[in-house]
Every structure is written in structure tokens, then in C-alpha cells.
Amino acid sequence: MSQPDRSDIREPEKVQLNLTSILVAIDSTSAARPLVKSAIHLAFRTKANLRAIYIEESEWFEASRFSFTQQVSSYTGELLPFTEKDLSDESKAVGALHKRLLSGYSKQLQVRWNYEIKRGPVDRELLKAASISDLVHIGRVRISGRRTARIGRNARYLAGQCNVPLCIWNEPTPEWPTQLIGLCTTPKESVQVVNWTLGLAATLGRTPRLFWSEELMEKSERDRFAEEVHKWFPEIEDQVFVNSEMYGSIDTDLLSHYPGPLLIARRKMLGAGVDEAEMKRKKPLFERLANSLILLS
Amino acid sequence: MSTHKTDEVVKQNQLSHDKLYRFCEHSTLSFDLTDKAEPVEYPFAGQDRALTSAFFGVKMQKDGFNLFALGPDETDKRTLLDEVIKREASGKETPNDWCYVCNYEDEFKPVTLELAPGEAVQLRDLMNRFAEDLPNALTSAFESEEYQTRRQSIEEEFTEEERTEFNELQRKAEEQGLKIMNTPVGYSFAPVRKGKVLTHEDVEKLSDEEREELEERVQDLQKELQSILRQVPERQRKYREMRNELNRRFAEYSIRGLISEVRNAFEHRPAVQEYLNRTEEDILNHVDEIINPGGGNPFLQALSGGERKMKQMPPSEHPVLWRYTVNVIVDHSKKDGAPVIYEDNPTYKNLIGRVEHISKMGTMTTDFTYIKPGSLHRANGGYLVIDALRLLTQPYAWDGLKRALQSSKLKVESPGDMYGLLSTLTLEPEPIDLNVKVVLTGSRLLYNLLCFYDQDFKNLFKVEVDFEDQLNWNEENQDLYARIIAELVRSNDLYPMDRSGVARLIEYASRLAGDRQKLTTRMKTILDILRESDFWCRQEGDKVIGEKAVEKAIEQRHYRSGRLKDRYQEEILRKTIFIDTEGEKTGQVNGLSVVRLGNSLFGHPTRITARVRVGKGEVVNIEREVEMSGPIHSKGVMILSSFLGARYAGERPLSLNASLVFEQSYGGVDGDSASSTELYALLSAISEIPLNQSIAVTGSVNQHGEIQPIGGVNEKIEGFFDICKERDLTGEQGVLIPQANVKNLMLKKEVVQAVEKGRFHIYAIRTIDEGMALLTGHMMGEPDEQGNYPEGSVNDRVEKKLQRFASIQQEFLGRGNHQKNQK
Q: Where in chain B is the domain with CATH 3.30.230.10?
């Protein structure tokens, strides 16, 4: 296995994240608020452009053309009209809310942003929009009054298909977690994880930690890698963890010592991109964890 | 002119030197040095009445039997009371502790807990510890894996329920060729083929029946979806209930684990157990705020220094945990017996307690932790000693004390609340049962004023502890007194005193009592003399206080306060103030006055003169006319007027006008000790018989001409003696005093020696007649059977003069009538 050399790990002066465009996928739920704010905060820190996108599902418009279809309110259960005009009005209303949200939060920080409404299949439109971004920021599906939120269909799709780093946000507030943990696997895979962990920590002023897999990296490799990291960042804390299934698992006991960290890992490590059959057998790790995640391709 | 008879009077009334001073025989003292004196049980002398009353008062347990110790300040009432109270208090049970705790139903009405001595502090410390540990315990419980898992299970259960229903609906929809879509505001159904929504055109191609059937399927499923969604609120409510129940159970478990330490320590106290039950319930209602103080409110957090600081703050500063602290009002953990409290600053607040307020965000706030006890709290179950004058001069303090004693309850409230002056929201702490014995100390005047003007006082202070000013100087008391002096020497770390010193001090104590048969009980003054004697002793380099040091102390005290006396004397000697000490004058006599100003007490002669003329029988007191005469002096003048009228105008009108005055007196006069003096001057003026100016006179006279005792006899005699001495004693000078004052004589050595040598004389008389004989050398004269006085006697000459006045008046009046008739 080739050893990473020093040039792979960014020096402190260059470690800050270099993002030019952040894509935030927002819907009409209240979870959009902390999602948007956290994205604005990151855009401010990295001086990136913020692209907010709301996708009108093309199937709605198709269905709205039928005379017999109506909308059922998810809160009251009442029947609401379902015409193209209604959908457009609703989109406009949602758009106005989103723009107010964006404008209100980004004005003070002077973050450049733009808001788009696109129509089409949501997952594909998102994938297309993601391809020209440096980071995609998406939330979970949160049920009112419940603590847990689940990974939505679109997030799952992006987790499997998107080549751009994907942040799946699961915080009820817009504050970025104080602790960032990079989950390192093989030496080659770990370089990006380390750079992202250190970069994000430096950008946001957070505490970085690195978890090393016992199974996926020899001890000597681990030590050398850690040594390289510590030359530049002596204060980084390391932990070695055991993942019983190699990829797709993590020592949850160890993780419980660190309250609510953001986890940064390769998709493979978090079990993203497995097929439907595998998903039906066992939920992938990234769906089981309650943490906010950054999946790297 | 003196006659044989007047010589008799002189001889009869002149006092020998041994009557002028009483010595304390050294040999009668039971010790050589005060170090060797036998200790006394109580360092008081002559206070049997006060001691008995005090014992009765402190032991009497019924309401209203509080004590008032009255008497002069110098009698050191406090020391006696201290002794009596402390002895009684030490044998009594230590009273209970008291504390205030939060009333969870109404924070503005804190409630009390009564606990055994020492338990209040114990409860406070345990509750503080409990409150400090509570946030961590609750946090640990809610962060525990079991809680997380069980909460997750509840959530999963409801989520699963919803998902199952939804999935079932989805399955049905799929079976019927439909799909559920998420729309901007909810859900909708659309027909699909191979997973894709049919287009409008596709649907148009369907037959009417197929379209109708499709519509029906969609509507049926919409209804079913509506039904599912309408159950969501109820389901959420049930979810919340189950979640809350879980939270409650975990909270209860955490609390119980922690609070058990407190419960076990107080398992014998039902009131504390009840309080802990209420505390548990209150904690369960505030779990979120305890774990997350400030509730994520950035403003509150910023005021408290940040979220982290809020979580670390002590219970007293925590927004919720303060409720579980204990405010100890009375703590008897380190005490034995009943408390004895001396309140030297008896303001209302110091007595009753107070509720403090602090400023928070611009408003004044308070809670039960800001209740502060007063001295009544601290003395509850015991004794409280207060100076009455200080108490009465403090606004609201007397009313507050009475109220507490009358109700036997101690309620902490401001005077504004007590009088209903304020209507702001404030604390109303639960009153505490009050069982205290109050001891007031003060003067007799204050006591009598209170008795007269305040009915409540008589009902609340039924035990008067009356302190004597003096005690009998007998052998037994002398020995006791000497031992008390010894005790004072020992307890004040003074040099030991020998017999001569003790004896001299006892003699001075008699002088202070103003009676050779008495000793003063003003032990504070005696102690001062002791201290000063000790000082002078040390100045001389001696190690034992003897008579010399005591003498020096007494002399120096007089010297320090003698400026006014010396100035007055100087004015007399320089003849600014006219005082004759030789010769004779008609209608003029040397009276004697006493001046008391600050520490200064001295006597001095005053010229009193009388003038007479024809008139209607009026004796004018010039001092009274210009409002410089006190009532007693005015009374004295009226009495001598009555004597005059009774003796010389029994059957005819008194036809004279007389005027009496204290010459060169500009400061006001009171007392009747000069009434006999004034009478002598008047009789001299009427009879035109001169009075001996070598003799000064003091004594009050009654209507029968009897000479009554006066005060300050020693000072008066010494005052006249000092003037005569400065002018060189002639051997003729002296003082006339009432016989009844002989027992009061404790004159200074100089006077006694002068009398012994015949250079000065003291005459003690009983009647005006005796006095007149001594002052004029003429007898007053006794009436014969016809009521006529002997020729040339004073009475005879007075009577003749008055007859003449009467004739003149008659003649004058007669002439006047005639003239009127003529007109």
C-alpha cells in the first residue's frame, strides 16, 4: 500500500477549505431554516457563493392536470386544490419565504447567494445542480415533535450518486457542531478525510479529531500517518476504533464519548451507495447515525 | 445681741465634729488585701428586691411577665440581670432551629420549618449538595443509554404506527395503480404506469368507465389518507404523554436517588419529609429548566455570563435551583441552653428582621433566601435584653415589639406593610411562634411614663425590677461591699487594694449616697473610682492601691469637673457677686444653692433679701413674677406666707406687702430648700432686727415653722466653707441646717477639722424660732396667756410692726373714703 507523503496533507497555512460554490437543497419544511443558516455560515467563512435550489417535482404538474386529484394537507388533513396554478402559487410562496430567509441571514454576513426554482425529477435535478458545486448541503426529513429525522429519498440518492462532497445536516439549530471527527480508513482514502477534517475545523474554529480504523490500516501505517499529521497539527487527538464489519460500521461506544460530533468520512465507510437489496437487509451506517455527516466521494 | 437663752440654743444645736463624718474602721474589714477577700456569689449589694424580682421574672413562664429593670444608670443593672438570666438560661433546653423554605404553590409566601438544634444547618448543607448534584444527575439520566433507547423505542413505536398505516396506504395505492406524492403543502394521489405518473393525454384515452373508476379509487384513497392524517394530532398527543411519562420516571428515579440522603437524615421529621415530597414534585415540573438554564435564551445566558457559566453556577444563583435551598434563620448548633441576646441597636429591622431586595434588570426582586432574622428570632426560646430609651427612640420599633409579644408570633414585614402604607407585592413569610422573655432597662421616669401613657406596656411588662440607689451601712453590708470592691478589682485586672483604700472607698460610697447611714449602689461610679485609683497608684510606682491613691482619684475627679465652681467662687471673692461672710444686715441672709451641671455638683451661697411695706398681705416672689421660679420654689414661698399669716394675722388682715428675691440670680430657681432662709429675711425685714451674715442657712419650712430636710447638704456646707476659708475663717462662721439632715453629713476633711478646731460651726435646728435665735441673738418669744409676746422678742417686734402697718392702711383707706364722700 503506498504511503501518503507530506505533500498530501495540507500545511496549516493552506489547510482552510477552499470552496467557491455551496449548493443548499431546500424544501418547504421548517427544517430548511437551520439548514440554510448553517450553509450561510459556511459560505461566509469560505467566501463561497451560496446556491439555493428548490425543485418543483414535475410529476406534481402532471398530476395536477387531472380533475380528480387534490392535495391532502399534511397537518390538518383537509383537502386543498391541486391545479397548476395552485402549485405555481405555492411555489412562489415557498420561494418568497426562502428568499426572505436567505436575504435575512446573509445580508449581515455579506454572503453572495442566488435562489433558483427548477422543475423536474427532484433527485436528478439535484444531481445536475450538484455537479457544478464544491459541496452539497441537504437536510433530513424531520417529523414535527420528534427528535429523530430520517434520511430522505433525495439525500439517499445523492449519497449514492453524487461525486461532490455531500453534507447531510441533522442539527435542530444552525450551529455547526463543536467537534469534528474524521473517520480514517486506508491511507489513501484517509488523506481527503484528514484534509477535510482539519480544513473544516480551521475554517469554523472547531475541534478536530481523527478516528483510525484498526482493521483497515496497519499499526505501523497508522503511526506514520499520524506522525505526519501531528508534525503540522500536534494538538489533534487520535483514537483507534474497531469496526467489526470493516466498512459500514463504527465503534458506537467510542463515539458516545463525544457529544454530537460532525462525522467526515468516505461514502464507502458510511455505507452509502449500497444497492436496494443490501439496504433492505440492513440500513446503511449513514442512515443509522443521528450525527450530521459529510460524505466524501 | 445674744442672751443667755440664745447661748443655750447655740449649745443645744451646734454639732460636734464627730457628727460630720463617719469613718470606716479598717479593723472591721475581713481582709488585708483584695486578693485575699472571699468571693461573692453575686457582685451586688443592697439589691435584694431587684434580685428577687429578677429571679421571679426570668422563671415565670406566663405571657405578659416580661421585665423592666428600672433605676439609675450607674447601678449597673445589666450586670445583675446578666448574672440572673445566664444562670437561668444555662439550665434551660436549647430551643429549636428555624428556617425558611420555598413555598412552591406561592413563592411570595415562604414557609417555615422548625427543627431540633443543629438540624437547620444540616438540612441546608444537605439540600445545597442535593441542588448542586441535581443538574448532573438529571443530565446523566437523560443522556443515559437506557433513556435514549427507551425514548427511541417510543418514537419508533409511533413512527412505526404511522409508517405502517402510510405504507399500507401506499401499497393499496400501488395495487390500484396509484402513487402518493409529496406536494408543497401535503400529499396527493396520481395514476402511474410502470412507476411513472400518467400524462393527461394518457388519462384522456381511458374510457369513461375507467376514468370514473380511477376517480373513485383516488377519492377513496384520499379519504383514507385524510383519516390517517387526522389521527396524527391525537397520536402526537399520546406520544408526548408517553414521552413525558418516561421523562418523569427517569427524573423521579434520579431525584430519589439523590434526595434519599436528605430523607434518611430526617426520617424522624414528618414536616421535612413533607417538604421533600413537595420539592420532588416541583423538580419534576422544572426538569428542563434545571438541565438547561436560560432555556436557550441568549439574552438570559448573556446576562449570566454565557451558557456554560449558567450550567456551572451555584444553586443560589441558578434560575431554578435556588428554590431548593434552605434559608437558616436561627441556628443553635453550637449553643447550650436558652439564648441570651443583647440588642444594642434596637431598630425595627434589627428586632423583627427584614426582607432584603436586589436589583435585577432594573427592578427590585426578592425571594425567601433574602429573609434576614432579627434579634427576636435569635432570642426566641430565651431572653432578649434591650435599653428602653434606645428602643423608644427608634421609629416603629416599640410598636413592632409589642405586636410580636401580644400575638406571640414573629412576622417579618416592613413597617410600611405593618401599617398598610404600601400596596406593592412583597414577601409574606409565614410567622414563627414566639416564646421570648424581654428585659427592658431604663430610668424610673421612663418606666412611670410608660405606665401612665401606654396601657399595653402594663400588660406586657408586669415584672418591675426596681434597683435601689443605696443600701444600709451596717456591718454585714459593709463586709459585703468590701468583698464586692475586691471582686471588681479582680475582675478588672487592677492592682490589689489594701484595707485603707477599701475603707476610704466605702466612706466615699457613703458620701455619694449623701447619707452617713447608707452606701451607694452606683457600682459603675465605684468602679470608675477604682480604675482611677489604680491609675494614680501606678503613676506613683506603687503596687498596692491605698488610701492615698483613692484620695487622689476623688480629688482629681472633683478637680476635673470643678471649673465652674472655681469660677463662681472667684466671682464671689472678687466681689462681683455680693456675699457677706461677716457683720449683720436687716432683711438680708446668705442662702445656699446647689448647682448640678454635667459632672459638676457644687454648692454656693446666694444672697436672699426681703423688703416690706404697707399693703394687702401679699408676699411677692420676684422670681415667680418674672417666671424664673420653679413650682416647688413658688410653693415654698406660699408656705412661708401662710406661716406668716397664721402666726401674725390670725384675727386681723395682714397689712403688708413683702418682696423676696435671690439677688444676682439670672438662671432660674427651684426647690424649697431656701424657704426658711427667705422667712428669716422676711422676719428680719419686718422686725428690723439684723441677721448675722457669718451664717449661711439652708432648710425648707412648713406652715408650722418646722424646718424640713433638704438635699445636697454636704455640697452646700462645703460651698460656704470654701468662701469663708478663702477670706480666712473668723471662727464665727457656720451653716444652719435642718436637724433631719444631720444623718446626711459626710463632709470633707477640711471642714471637719475646722469644726473640730472651732474655726467653723454647723448648727442643726428644728424650728424657725431656733434659727432666728441663732441668726439674730434674739429669741422669737412665746406668747403668754393673753397671747402677747415678750417685749423685745422677735415675735413682739414683728407683731408691733404689722399693727402699725394695719393702722396706716386703715387711716389711708379712711381718708380715701372721706374724700370720695366729699366729692
A: 578-781+789-806
Query: Is residue B402 among the annotated active site residues?
Result: no
∠ CA B127-B131-B136 to the nearest 5 degrees? 145
Q: Of B19-23, B266-270, B432-436, B807-811, which gets the smallest average pLDDT?
A: B807-811
Q: State yes or no: pLDDT of B585 exceeds 60.
A: yes
Yes or no: say if B609 and B660 are a contact pair by the CB < 8 Å rule: yes
Residue-level pLDDT at A4: 43
How far apart (Å, rounded) are the C-alpha atoms in residues B8 and B778?
A: 12
CA distance B735 to B707: 14
According to the model, what pLDDT value does residue A3 have? 44
Give the model's pLDDT for residue A13.
64
The model carries a pTM of 0.70
* Cβ-contact B438, B386 below 8 angstroms: yes
- Look up the CATH number of domain B578-781+789-806: 3.30.230.10
Q: B605 has which bridge partners? A: B592
Residue range(s) defining the domain that contains residue A44: 23-133
A8 and B CB contact within 8 Å = no
Q: How far is residue B588's CA from residue B282's CA, in Å, rounded to a whole number?
A: 94
Helices (H) and strands (E) in chain B, counts: 31, 30
Q: In chain A, which among 131-190 make CB contacts under 8 A with chain B?
A: 143-148
Res. B297: pLDDT tops 70: no
Residue B554, pLDDT score:
95
Q: Catalytic pick from B53, B254, B659, B673?
A: B673
Whole-number Å distance between alpha carbons of A77 and B229: 5
Q: Where in chain B is the domain with CATH 3.40.50.300?
A: 47-89+336-467
Q: How many residues does chain A have?
A: 297
Give me the pLDDT at residue B86, please: 92
Cβ pairs A/B, distance under 8 A = 101
**How confident is residue B115, by pLDDT bands cut at 50, 70 and 90?**
very high
User: Which residues, in sequence order, are bridge partners of residue A263?
Assistant: A181, A293
Instruction: Say whether B673 is catalytic.
Output: yes
